[in-house]
Amino acid sequence: MTMFGSAIANEHEVLDDSSQHEPEIVDPRDDVPRRIGALRVSDMLSMVGAILASLSMTTVIFTVLAPFGGVIGFIAIAYIIFLVVYAVLVSLDEKTTIVRDRVVSVAVHSLAVIVFATLVYIVSFAVFRGVEALPHLNFLTEDMSVTGPLDPVTQGGVLHAIVGTLIQISIALAITLPLGLTTAVFLSEVPGPFSRFVRTIVEAMTALPSIVAGLFIYATFILILGLDKSGFAASLAITVMMLPIMIRASDVVLRLVPSTLKEASIGLGADNFRTMWQVTLPTARSGLVTAIILATARGIGETSPVLLTSGFTASMNVDPFHGPMVSLPLAVFQFVKSPEPTMIARGFGTAAVLMLLVVILFVIARIIGSDTVAKKDKRRAQRERFFKAISDFFVSVARVMARLFSPRNSRAPRRLSRRRRSRRRVVAQTFNDSLKRNGVSE
Amino acid sequence: MVSDSAIAHAFRAQIEFWMPVTLVSPRKLSHVSSRVDYVYRGVARAGGIIVLLIMLAIGVFLGLRATQAISADGWSFLTTQAWEPDANNFGIAAVLVGTILIALVAVSFALPMAMGTSLYISEYAPLRIKRFLIGLVDLMAAIPSVVYGLWGFFALQGSIVPIARWISQTFGWIPFLNVPEYDPADPLAPNTVFTSSTFIAGIVVALMITPIMTSIMREVFSQAPVGEREASLGLGATKWGMIRSVLLPFGVGGIIGGTMLGLGRALGETIAVYMIISPVFMIQPHILQNGASSISSLIALKYGEASSFGMSALMAAGLTLFIVTLIVNFGASAIVARSRSGASS
Question: Could you tell me how many CB contacts below 8 A there are between chain A and chain B?
Fold first, then answer.
């Protein structure tokens, strides 16, 4: 059961491979891959039997033998019994190697299911608990300056945190984007011992603990320079955290650009800058965008550097240089610290808003990142068709206008048409007369 | 042919004897950079230098701020468990051990999950959903840590406590799984002794580091040479046989490196841990028992009320965390770079 999806995958790979070596003209509809790992009745039976056996045995254990509690415990014990029973059943008619393969396959599938199910659980849990606060429009349009912890969720909102997050991430991006891209270009385009050293340092910094980034900005910006906690300090802390992530991701992308392209550009007489600007960067564009979005998503979601550097406020502050400025993750953190259920609901609602922001970023990244040359060509063709249709329309409109309003054309036909009308009338009359004469009319 | 080349050789030897330099040395390739390139390279190098300076400044400034505390405390900074900087009685023994314990619990949960998920994506998943799953793993890595913290505190904690109790009852003879404060004979013994523990924080952190580990391992597995896979399958290996004999030996560097990167991230995780644990400032070897500690949550907890000296002590703690993470990361990248699969990643 678990085999045949992957068997098809393998078959695909093999077919792809052979078709590259010896191109044959085959109608793709006839070229259906043979199913190597087709599902057999005995596989099905041992699977179903193992499930039934494990469920019933676990029920017996839970109700009769030992009073354990909890859903997770039930599932865990049922799963272990299932694995054992399944292995025994398969071993009745297969060799040991195949039994091992089946058991591993079940284990791998279940681990993947656990991981993805947990992800869905985590995300939907936050959204589900936030439902109490989310549907009220004021949640997105008000701040918390006049709302106390005991007020219902129909009052107050997180607009200040949304604005704060956007301001902070914009400042962070304004610093990270040029600096990070320049450094990534340096690492991949200007090779040498120094750039290797920088790369090592940057790679080691990718997992810089976020709280250390916050601590660093706190030590320099606030303690040494003596400035207040502010949105700008928070942006700097986020910047320190985002920089290595972005440099590393873009460096990997830039190194994937085929060197033949660059050599062709240099061979045509372009200098290094021009090659980088017109060949390397455009080729790596979608990957670079993905790198930027990944770093941005990490930067938006970080709480701890912001916790140390931005201060906390319940009211709107759009000035990043003065006064505390709160961001979405920090707002979540502060909300759920409160024992009030409405505040906790607000916290979950804020978390949902934050995740929505991250998901939007990801969808954008996926759209841009999945851009292939074929897709781009198709889009360009569509665009050209669209513009051609528009331009055709305007050209024809212009022609009609020109005919209507041009002074020569507008008068001449009218004068002509009077004469023509009379002549046409005469022609039509004679024609009708001749028809009548021949008895064809009516 | 032979005679020709022999003649040529003799001829060249004659000439070289008379004018040795001009003919033997290859033509010198000279390269004149345009002015634009000069500026471009300078700007790129400046970017690299700035980033390097920022990264070095992190260590330097943390070190500068930390000297006050460390010089006042001396070696007892490494051995003291309490955290009372204003009474000059503080050290990182408890929090460092707590950090490492949480990270170890996290890695021991995350390693099988990441292995399973990456093997599933690279070997078992149907082609149609493969790309989708890769995107999902990336997305999972970008879920804010505070969301994991919310889930851990409000959802996981309740359902994990019975399991923790069962583990401590069944495997209590293993020292670190023992919970001395819990008396199984007392039916009214409170379950709260199992909440806010290293174990629960570790599970939440495990879920946070699973995506990054998964994505590194999947990347490595996907680079395994197709020829070797097909050779293995062609010799009659089952899928698991192929994985064991080709994929895992090929990707072992990536697996170890990815795990260490996950470990590095687990060591530094702040908010989710802070939301779950109830901090204690003594070495807590019983991972199932209420009360845990970590360096990052210590900083998040104490920075607000810290005096100037207390802040210096926190900086010292942060510096320790920084150094530990750096060591782990350098180790990870060295292992990944040395492995057969790691050259390109």
Answer: 300
